[in-house]
Specification:
binds adenosine monophosphate; binds magnesium ion; 7 helices; 6-stranded mixed beta sheet; Molybdenum Cofactor Biosythetic Enzyme, Chain A; 4 domains; alpha/beta; Molybdopterin biosynthesis moeA protein, domain 3
Length: 389
Protein backbone atom coordinates (compact mmCIF):
# COMPACT_ATOMS: atom_id res chain seq x y z
CA UNK A 1 0.00 0.00 0.00
CA UNK A 2 1.25 3.49 -0.84
CA UNK A 3 0.13 6.82 0.58
CA UNK A 4 -2.32 9.16 -1.13
CA UNK A 5 0.51 11.66 -1.77
CA UNK A 6 2.66 8.96 -3.42
CA UNK A 7 -0.29 7.74 -5.47
CA UNK A 8 -0.86 11.30 -6.68
CA UNK A 9 2.81 11.66 -7.72
CA UNK A 10 2.57 8.40 -9.68
CA UNK A 11 -0.67 9.56 -11.29
CA UNK A 12 0.93 12.87 -12.33
CA UNK A 13 3.76 10.91 -13.98
CA UNK A 14 1.22 8.84 -15.90
CA UNK A 15 -0.88 11.81 -17.05
CA UNK A 16 0.06 13.43 -20.37
CA UNK A 17 -1.03 17.01 -21.11
CA UNK A 18 -3.27 17.08 -24.19
CA UNK A 19 -2.64 19.27 -27.23
CA UNK A 20 -4.24 22.68 -27.65
CA UNK A 21 -6.98 23.98 -29.93
CA UNK A 22 -8.45 27.37 -30.82
CA UNK A 23 -12.03 28.11 -29.78
CA UNK A 24 -14.23 31.15 -30.06
CA UNK A 25 -14.69 33.15 -26.89
CA UNK A 26 -18.34 32.10 -26.61
CA UNK A 27 -17.15 28.48 -26.28
CA UNK A 28 -14.28 29.18 -23.90
CA UNK A 29 -15.94 29.21 -20.47
CA UNK A 30 -14.41 26.64 -18.06
CA UNK A 31 -11.73 25.76 -20.63
CA UNK A 32 -8.06 26.02 -19.66
CA UNK A 33 -6.21 28.84 -21.41
CA UNK A 34 -3.00 27.38 -22.85
CA UNK A 35 -1.18 30.50 -24.07
CA UNK A 36 -1.21 34.03 -22.62
CA UNK A 37 -3.89 36.26 -24.13
CA UNK A 38 -2.70 39.82 -24.76
CA UNK A 39 -4.91 42.91 -24.82
CA UNK A 40 -5.10 44.51 -28.26
CA UNK A 41 -6.11 47.94 -26.93
CA UNK A 42 -6.36 50.16 -23.86
CA UNK A 43 -9.55 50.02 -21.81
CA UNK A 44 -11.13 52.49 -21.68
CA UNK A 45 -9.49 53.61 -24.95
CA UNK A 46 -10.20 57.25 -24.00
CA UNK A 47 -10.93 59.14 -20.78
CA UNK A 48 -14.61 58.30 -20.28
CA UNK A 49 -17.35 59.80 -18.20
CA UNK A 50 -18.38 57.62 -15.25
CA UNK A 51 -21.69 59.45 -14.76
CA UNK A 52 -24.46 61.37 -16.51
CA UNK A 53 -23.85 65.12 -16.08
CA UNK A 54 -21.87 68.02 -17.53
CA UNK A 55 -18.22 68.01 -18.60
CA UNK A 56 -16.33 71.17 -17.64
CA UNK A 57 -12.84 72.38 -16.79
CA UNK A 58 -12.41 72.05 -13.00
CA UNK A 59 -12.09 72.85 -10.22
CA UNK A 60 -15.73 73.81 -9.80
CA UNK A 61 -17.20 76.00 -7.08
CA UNK A 62 -20.79 75.85 -5.81
CA UNK A 63 -22.82 78.57 -7.54
CA UNK A 64 -20.61 78.63 -10.66
CA UNK A 65 -22.47 78.83 -13.99
CA UNK A 66 -21.65 77.39 -17.45
CA UNK A 67 -23.12 77.61 -20.97
CA UNK A 68 -23.94 74.21 -22.45
CA UNK A 69 -22.46 74.12 -25.97
CA UNK A 70 -23.07 70.55 -27.04
CA UNK A 71 -23.49 66.89 -26.13
CA UNK A 72 -21.29 63.79 -25.79
CA UNK A 73 -22.96 60.38 -25.61
CA UNK A 74 -21.54 56.83 -25.55
CA UNK A 75 -20.43 56.17 -29.11
CA UNK A 76 -20.89 59.84 -30.16
CA UNK A 77 -18.03 62.09 -29.02
CA UNK A 78 -18.11 65.89 -28.84
CA UNK A 79 -15.34 66.66 -31.29
CA UNK A 80 -14.23 70.18 -30.32
CA UNK A 81 -12.29 71.59 -27.41
CA UNK A 82 -14.40 73.13 -24.64
CA UNK A 83 -13.39 76.66 -23.56
CA UNK A 84 -13.36 77.75 -19.90
CA UNK A 85 -16.81 78.70 -18.68
CA UNK A 86 -18.51 76.33 -21.12
CA UNK A 87 -19.96 72.85 -20.48
CA UNK A 88 -20.91 69.80 -22.55
CA UNK A 89 -23.87 67.62 -21.65
CA UNK A 90 -22.31 64.17 -21.18
CA UNK A 91 -23.54 60.63 -20.57
CA UNK A 92 -21.88 57.57 -18.98
CA UNK A 93 -19.32 55.98 -21.29
CA UNK A 94 -18.89 59.05 -23.52
CA UNK A 95 -15.38 60.35 -24.25
CA UNK A 96 -14.61 63.39 -22.10
CA UNK A 97 -14.12 66.32 -24.53
CA UNK A 98 -10.76 68.08 -24.81
CA UNK A 99 -10.45 70.94 -22.34
CA UNK A 100 -12.54 69.17 -19.66
CA UNK A 101 -11.29 67.30 -16.60
CA UNK A 102 -14.41 67.10 -14.45
CA UNK A 103 -17.94 65.77 -14.86
CA UNK A 104 -20.43 67.48 -12.54
CA UNK A 105 -23.21 64.97 -11.99
CA UNK A 106 -26.63 66.06 -13.17
CA UNK A 107 -28.03 65.84 -9.62
CA UNK A 108 -25.63 68.67 -8.62
CA UNK A 109 -26.83 71.25 -11.17
CA UNK A 110 -29.96 73.17 -12.07
CA UNK A 111 -30.53 73.93 -15.72
CA UNK A 112 -32.28 76.87 -17.26
CA UNK A 113 -32.27 76.70 -21.06
CA UNK A 114 -28.63 76.30 -22.06
CA UNK A 115 -27.25 77.59 -18.77
CA UNK A 116 -26.41 75.38 -15.79
CA UNK A 117 -25.64 76.39 -12.22
CA UNK A 118 -23.70 74.13 -9.89
CA UNK A 119 -25.94 73.80 -6.85
CA UNK A 120 -23.85 72.29 -4.20
CA UNK A 121 -20.87 70.32 -3.13
CA UNK A 122 -20.15 68.20 -6.18
CA UNK A 123 -18.49 64.83 -5.86
CA UNK A 124 -15.14 64.09 -7.53
CA UNK A 125 -14.11 64.23 -11.14
CA UNK A 126 -16.21 61.24 -12.28
CA UNK A 127 -13.82 60.34 -15.09
CA UNK A 128 -12.41 56.92 -15.88
CA UNK A 129 -8.87 57.55 -17.16
CA UNK A 130 -7.74 56.03 -20.48
CA UNK A 131 -6.17 52.62 -19.82
CA UNK A 132 -7.45 52.68 -16.23
CA UNK A 133 -8.67 49.07 -16.50
CA UNK A 134 -5.88 47.65 -18.70
CA UNK A 135 -3.35 48.72 -21.30
CA UNK A 136 -2.64 47.23 -24.74
CA UNK A 137 -0.03 44.49 -24.31
CA UNK A 138 -1.21 43.51 -20.83
CA UNK A 139 -1.75 39.71 -20.61
CA UNK A 140 -3.96 37.17 -18.95
CA UNK A 141 -1.43 34.46 -18.10
CA UNK A 142 -1.70 30.75 -18.91
CA UNK A 143 -2.43 28.11 -17.82
CA UNK A 144 -5.65 29.31 -16.26
CA UNK A 145 -9.16 27.90 -16.06
CA UNK A 146 -11.35 30.57 -17.61
CA UNK A 147 -14.03 31.93 -15.30
CA UNK A 148 -17.01 33.99 -16.51
CA UNK A 149 -15.12 37.11 -15.34
CA UNK A 150 -12.08 36.08 -17.42
CA UNK A 151 -14.31 35.69 -20.49
CA UNK A 152 -15.66 39.22 -20.00
CA UNK A 153 -12.10 40.55 -19.64
CA UNK A 154 -10.91 38.73 -22.79
CA UNK A 155 -13.85 40.13 -24.74
CA UNK A 156 -13.00 43.68 -23.56
CA UNK A 157 -9.40 43.02 -24.69
CA UNK A 158 -10.84 42.43 -28.19
CA UNK A 159 -9.82 38.78 -28.21
CA UNK A 160 -12.34 36.77 -30.22
CA UNK A 161 -10.56 33.39 -30.10
CA UNK A 162 -8.36 31.76 -27.49
CA UNK A 163 -5.96 28.86 -27.39
CA UNK A 164 -7.17 26.26 -24.88
CA UNK A 165 -6.35 22.67 -23.96
CA UNK A 166 -8.40 20.16 -25.92
CA UNK A 167 -11.00 18.45 -23.73
CA UNK A 168 -9.45 15.18 -22.57
CA UNK A 169 -11.52 12.18 -23.73
CA UNK A 170 -12.34 9.90 -20.83
CA UNK A 171 -13.94 6.47 -21.29
CA UNK A 172 -15.87 5.27 -18.23
CA UNK A 173 -16.45 1.55 -17.83
CA UNK A 174 -18.67 0.08 -15.12
CA UNK A 175 -18.02 -3.58 -14.47
CA UNK A 176 -20.28 -6.13 -12.83
CA UNK A 177 -22.88 -8.80 -13.57
CA UNK A 178 -25.18 -7.10 -11.06
CA UNK A 179 -25.40 -3.79 -12.91
CA UNK A 180 -27.96 -2.35 -15.31
CA UNK A 181 -28.21 1.17 -16.73
CA UNK A 182 -30.57 3.74 -15.13
CA UNK A 183 -34.00 3.34 -16.74
CA UNK A 184 -33.48 -0.37 -17.49
CA UNK A 185 -35.43 -3.14 -15.77
CA UNK A 186 -33.17 -4.68 -13.09
CA UNK A 187 -33.52 -8.35 -12.16
CA UNK A 188 -34.15 -9.21 -8.49
CA UNK A 189 -30.42 -9.55 -7.83
CA UNK A 190 -29.37 -6.48 -9.76
CA UNK A 191 -28.70 -2.79 -8.97
CA UNK A 192 -28.33 0.32 -11.07
CA UNK A 193 -24.93 1.52 -12.25
CA UNK A 194 -24.52 4.89 -10.57
CA UNK A 195 -20.79 5.53 -10.54
CA UNK A 196 -20.27 6.14 -14.23
CA UNK A 197 -22.98 8.80 -14.17
CA UNK A 198 -21.65 10.57 -11.07
CA UNK A 199 -18.12 10.53 -12.43
CA UNK A 200 -19.19 11.79 -15.85
CA UNK A 201 -20.97 14.71 -14.15
CA UNK A 202 -17.91 15.48 -12.03
CA UNK A 203 -15.35 15.21 -14.84
CA UNK A 204 -17.37 16.95 -17.56
CA UNK A 205 -18.00 19.87 -15.20
CA UNK A 206 -14.23 20.13 -14.79
CA UNK A 207 -13.32 20.16 -18.46
CA UNK A 208 -13.40 16.55 -19.71
CA UNK A 209 -15.46 14.91 -22.43
CA UNK A 210 -16.63 11.61 -20.94
CA UNK A 211 -18.05 8.62 -22.77
CA UNK A 212 -20.04 6.10 -20.76
CA UNK A 213 -19.35 2.69 -22.32
CA UNK A 214 -21.71 -0.29 -22.04
CA UNK A 215 -21.48 -2.13 -18.74
CA UNK A 216 -18.77 -4.79 -18.82
CA UNK A 217 -19.77 -8.17 -17.42
CA UNK A 218 -17.43 -10.04 -15.07
CA UNK A 219 -15.84 -12.05 -17.86
CA UNK A 220 -12.50 -11.54 -19.54
CA UNK A 221 -14.19 -11.41 -22.96
CA UNK A 222 -16.61 -8.67 -21.94
CA UNK A 223 -13.85 -6.60 -20.33
CA UNK A 224 -11.64 -6.99 -23.41
CA UNK A 225 -14.50 -5.87 -25.60
CA UNK A 226 -14.97 -2.73 -23.50
CA UNK A 227 -11.28 -1.88 -23.47
CA UNK A 228 -11.46 -2.12 -27.28
CA UNK A 229 -14.42 0.30 -27.29
CA UNK A 230 -12.36 2.70 -25.18
CA UNK A 231 -9.82 3.05 -28.02
CA UNK A 232 -8.94 6.68 -28.69
CA UNK A 233 -9.58 7.86 -25.14
CA UNK A 234 -6.85 9.76 -23.30
CA UNK A 235 -7.89 8.16 -20.02
CA UNK A 236 -9.76 4.90 -19.44
CA UNK A 237 -11.45 4.62 -16.05
CA UNK A 238 -12.82 1.28 -14.93
CA UNK A 239 -15.09 1.02 -11.93
CA UNK A 240 -15.31 -2.08 -9.78
CA UNK A 241 -13.73 -5.47 -10.28
CA UNK A 242 -10.45 -4.17 -8.90
CA UNK A 243 -10.25 -6.15 -5.65
CA UNK A 244 -9.07 -9.71 -5.26
CA UNK A 245 -12.45 -11.51 -5.45
CA UNK A 246 -13.02 -14.34 -7.97
CA UNK A 247 -14.94 -11.90 -10.18
CA UNK A 248 -12.38 -9.12 -10.02
CA UNK A 249 -10.76 -9.43 -13.42
CA UNK A 250 -9.90 -5.84 -14.32
CA UNK A 251 -6.24 -6.05 -13.25
CA UNK A 252 -5.68 -9.33 -15.09
CA UNK A 253 -7.35 -8.28 -18.34
CA UNK A 254 -5.63 -4.88 -18.30
CA UNK A 255 -2.25 -6.59 -17.77
CA UNK A 256 -2.98 -9.06 -20.63
CA UNK A 257 -3.69 -6.03 -22.83
CA UNK A 258 -0.31 -4.54 -21.99
CA UNK A 259 -1.13 -2.23 -19.08
CA UNK A 260 2.07 -1.31 -17.30
CA UNK A 261 0.80 -0.99 -13.75
CA UNK A 262 2.32 1.80 -11.71
CA UNK A 263 0.72 0.91 -8.36
CA UNK A 264 -2.15 -1.00 -6.84
CA UNK A 265 -3.70 -0.29 -3.44
CA UNK A 266 -3.44 2.87 -1.44
CA UNK A 267 -3.58 3.60 2.27
CA UNK A 268 -6.89 5.40 1.96
CA UNK A 269 -10.45 4.98 3.15
CA UNK A 270 -12.64 4.72 1.16
CA UNK A 271 -10.81 3.64 -1.96
CA UNK A 272 -8.10 1.13 -1.09
CA UNK A 273 -8.10 -0.93 -4.30
CA UNK A 274 -7.02 1.70 -6.79
CA UNK A 275 -4.79 0.79 -9.73
CA UNK A 276 -3.21 2.93 -12.39
CA UNK A 277 -0.87 2.57 -15.32
CA UNK A 278 -0.47 3.24 -19.02
CA UNK A 279 -2.04 1.10 -21.68
CA UNK A 280 -0.99 1.89 -25.24
CA UNK A 281 -1.56 5.61 -25.78
CA UNK A 282 -3.94 5.93 -22.86
CA UNK A 283 -3.67 6.30 -19.14
CA UNK A 284 -5.73 3.79 -17.20
CA UNK A 285 -7.15 4.12 -13.70
CA UNK A 286 -9.09 1.33 -12.00
CA UNK A 287 -11.40 2.62 -9.29
CA UNK A 288 -13.13 0.63 -6.55
CA UNK A 289 -16.79 -0.17 -7.21
CA UNK A 290 -18.46 1.09 -4.05
CA UNK A 291 -20.31 4.21 -5.16
CA UNK A 292 -18.92 6.54 -2.51
CA UNK A 293 -15.39 5.15 -2.95
CA UNK A 294 -15.55 5.78 -6.68
CA UNK A 295 -16.76 9.36 -6.22
CA UNK A 296 -14.25 10.13 -3.44
CA UNK A 297 -11.45 8.80 -5.68
CA UNK A 298 -12.87 11.00 -8.43
CA UNK A 299 -12.45 14.08 -6.24
CA UNK A 300 -9.11 13.11 -4.68
CA UNK A 301 -7.39 11.59 -7.75
CA UNK A 302 -9.22 12.07 -11.03
CA UNK A 303 -9.75 15.84 -10.77
CA UNK A 304 -6.01 16.53 -10.20
CA UNK A 305 -5.19 14.11 -13.05
CA UNK A 306 -7.64 15.94 -15.30
CA UNK A 307 -6.11 19.30 -14.28
CA UNK A 308 -2.69 17.94 -15.25
CA UNK A 309 -3.99 16.72 -18.62
CA UNK A 310 -5.39 20.21 -19.18
CA UNK A 311 -1.93 21.68 -18.62
CA UNK A 312 -2.53 22.97 -15.08
CA UNK A 313 0.13 22.43 -12.40
CA UNK A 314 0.52 18.91 -10.99
CA UNK A 315 -0.95 19.36 -7.54
CA UNK A 316 -3.90 18.20 -5.53
CA UNK A 317 -7.03 20.30 -5.25
CA UNK A 318 -6.51 22.75 -2.36
CA UNK A 319 -7.68 21.72 1.10
CA UNK A 320 -9.45 24.19 3.38
CA UNK A 321 -9.68 24.35 7.15
CA UNK A 322 -12.62 24.46 9.54
CA UNK A 323 -13.33 23.80 13.21
CA UNK A 324 -14.94 20.58 14.34
CA UNK A 325 -18.52 21.04 15.55
CA UNK A 326 -18.62 17.43 16.86
CA UNK A 327 -15.76 15.22 18.07
CA UNK A 328 -14.36 12.43 15.86
CA UNK A 329 -12.71 9.20 17.00
CA UNK A 330 -9.06 8.29 16.37
CA UNK A 331 -8.16 7.27 12.82
CA UNK A 332 -6.46 4.03 11.77
CA UNK A 333 -3.69 3.14 9.34
CA UNK A 334 -5.31 4.65 6.24
CA UNK A 335 -5.95 8.31 5.35
CA UNK A 336 -9.70 8.68 5.83
CA UNK A 337 -11.93 10.99 3.78
CA UNK A 338 -15.05 11.33 5.89
CA UNK A 339 -18.25 12.69 4.41
CA UNK A 340 -19.00 15.94 6.21
CA UNK A 341 -20.98 19.14 6.12
CA UNK A 342 -19.36 22.57 6.47
CA UNK A 343 -21.41 25.56 7.57
CA UNK A 344 -19.37 28.75 7.92
CA UNK A 345 -16.22 27.61 9.72
CA UNK A 346 -17.94 24.68 11.47
CA UNK A 347 -17.52 21.12 10.17
CA UNK A 348 -19.62 18.13 11.19
CA UNK A 349 -18.71 14.63 10.02
CA UNK A 350 -21.71 12.38 9.39
CA UNK A 351 -22.31 9.46 11.75
CA UNK A 352 -22.74 6.99 8.91
CA UNK A 353 -19.57 6.61 6.85
CA UNK A 354 -20.31 3.35 4.93
CA UNK A 355 -18.85 3.69 1.44
CA UNK A 356 -22.09 2.47 -0.18
CA UNK A 357 -24.29 5.36 1.08
CA UNK A 358 -24.96 7.79 -1.75
CA UNK A 359 -27.61 9.66 0.27
CA UNK A 360 -24.95 10.65 2.79
CA UNK A 361 -22.58 11.72 0.00
CA UNK A 362 -25.36 13.81 -1.55
CA UNK A 363 -25.82 15.64 1.79
CA UNK A 364 -22.07 16.21 2.16
CA UNK A 365 -20.34 19.33 0.88
CA UNK A 366 -16.91 18.38 2.21
CA UNK A 367 -14.57 15.46 2.76
CA UNK A 368 -12.90 15.70 6.16
CA UNK A 369 -9.32 14.50 5.72
CA UNK A 370 -8.05 12.39 8.62
CA UNK A 371 -4.30 11.76 8.50
CA UNK A 372 -2.98 8.25 9.10
CA UNK A 373 -3.08 7.45 12.87
CA UNK A 374 -4.60 10.85 13.68
CA UNK A 375 -5.67 10.88 17.34
CA UNK A 376 -9.22 11.56 18.50
CA UNK A 377 -10.24 15.16 17.71
CA UNK A 378 -12.42 17.37 19.85
CA UNK A 379 -14.95 20.14 19.27
CA UNK A 380 -13.14 23.32 18.19
CA UNK A 381 -10.07 21.51 16.77
CA UNK A 382 -8.94 22.83 13.41
CA UNK A 383 -9.18 20.20 10.67
CA UNK A 384 -8.54 20.03 6.93
CA UNK A 385 -11.19 19.22 4.35
CA UNK A 386 -11.59 18.92 0.60
CA UNK A 387 -14.59 20.93 -0.62
CA UNK A 388 -17.05 18.97 -2.77
CA UNK A 389 -18.57 20.81 -5.69
P1 LIG B 1 -16.53 -4.41 -6.82
O1 LIG B 1 -15.38 -3.46 -6.64
O2 LIG B 1 -16.77 -4.76 -8.23
O3 LIG B 1 -16.41 -5.59 -5.92
O4 LIG B 1 -17.81 -3.61 -6.34
C1 LIG B 1 -17.96 -3.19 -5.00
C2 LIG B 1 -19.40 -2.80 -4.75
O5 LIG B 1 -19.74 -1.68 -5.57
C3 LIG B 1 -20.41 -3.88 -5.11
O6 LIG B 1 -21.45 -3.80 -4.15
C4 LIG B 1 -20.93 -3.46 -6.47
O7 LIG B 1 -22.23 -3.92 -6.72
C5 LIG B 1 -20.88 -1.96 -6.39
N1 LIG B 1 -20.65 -1.36 -7.70
C6 LIG B 1 -19.67 -1.68 -8.56
N2 LIG B 1 -19.72 -0.92 -9.65
C7 LIG B 1 -20.79 -0.10 -9.48
C8 LIG B 1 -21.36 0.95 -10.27
N3 LIG B 1 -20.87 1.28 -11.47
N4 LIG B 1 -22.43 1.60 -9.78
C9 LIG B 1 -22.94 1.26 -8.56
N5 LIG B 1 -22.42 0.33 -7.77
C10 LIG B 1 -21.38 -0.38 -8.22
MG1 LIG C 1 -17.83 -6.14 -9.24
Amino acid sequence: MITVEDALSHLFELARPVETETVSLAQAATRVLSAPATARRDQPPFAASAMDGYAVAGPVEGGETFDVIGEAAAGAAFDASVPTGKAVRIFTGAPVPAGCDTVVIQEDVTRDGNRITVTGPHSGRNIRPAGGDFRAGQSLDAPRRLSPSDIALLAAMNIAEVSVARKPEIALISTGNELVMPGDQPGPDQIIASNTFGLKALLDANGARCRILPIARDTEASLRQNFALAQGADLVVTIGGASVGDHDLVGKVAADLGMRQSFYKIAMRPGKPLMAGRMGDAMMVGLPGNPVSAMVCGHVFLLPVLDRMLGLPAKRRPLKTAKLAKPVAANGAREHYMRARVDGDQLTAFERQDSALLTVLAEANALLKRPIHDGPRDVGDTVEYLPLS
